[in-house]
Design goal:
Elements: E1 2-5, H1 13-26, E2 33-36, H2 52-63, E3 67-74, E4 77-78, H3 80-87, E5 104-111, H4 114-130, E6 134-135, E7 140-143, H5 158-176
Parallel strand pairs: 1-2, 1-3, 3-5, 5-6, 5-7
Antiparallel strand pairs: 3-4
Helix pairs in contact: 1-5
């Protein structure tokens, strides 16, 4: 299972949220891989050549049986960093398993305010559908004005942790049931 997300800041709130979801999946025996925000600094998507980071991202998505994507919400939308990374899924269009076809995708948004958190999650769901992925039944909208994630894998709000852990479990369980 592949986790994609975060911001350019190492250990950002959205990256910490992503780690909670991935750790939950790993507890069920699923192998996980993380590509955090600083590793998502890629050229703007086009159909040209790929650098090493873009090739790693594409190959990691290609191998993944499930994904978890967590984006910060900026001005009511997902970050350009995460959107650009998701645009690279286009490189899988000719695969036998095109795009995210048949794969579970857990989604969460972390934003300073409910409006941005909810609209960002909605956009992530829309993009996942467009890429033929299966969004998990539960998605996470986390208001970072109310919830703070810590370095030890927890957060100030137990409900946010439970939500993220359930998202990770849902992706893992769907992956393991195939």
């Amino acid at each position: 299972m592949l986790g994609i997300g975060g911001s350019l800041r190492d250990g950002s709130q959205s990256e910490r949220a992503l780690r909670i979801a991935l750790d939950s999946a790993a507890e069920l025996g699923v192998e996980t891989e993380l590509i955090p925000g600083p590793e998502l600094v890629l050229p703007f998507y086009d159909t040209g050549e790929r650098d090493d980071r873009a090739r790693r991202l594409i190959e990691s998505i290609r191998r993944a049986d499930g994904l978890i994507v967590v984006s910060p919400g900026y001005h009511g939308a997902l970050s350009g960093l995460v959107k650009n990374a998701l645009d690279y899924v286009e490189d899988l269009r000719e695969d036998t398993r095109p795009y995210l076809d048949g794969r579970p995708v857990g989604l969460a948004a972390v934003a300073f305010g409910w409006q941005a958190a909810v609209t960002t999650l909605d956009q992530l769901r829309t993009i996942t559908h467009a890429l033929r992925g299966w969004p998990t039944p539960l998605g996470g909208s986390i208001n970072s004005a109310e919830t703070k994630f810590d370095e030890s894998g927890g957060a100030s709000d137990d409900k946010s942790v439970r939500t993220l852990r359930l998202i990770g479990r849902q992706v893992a369980e769907f992956t393991l049931s195939r």
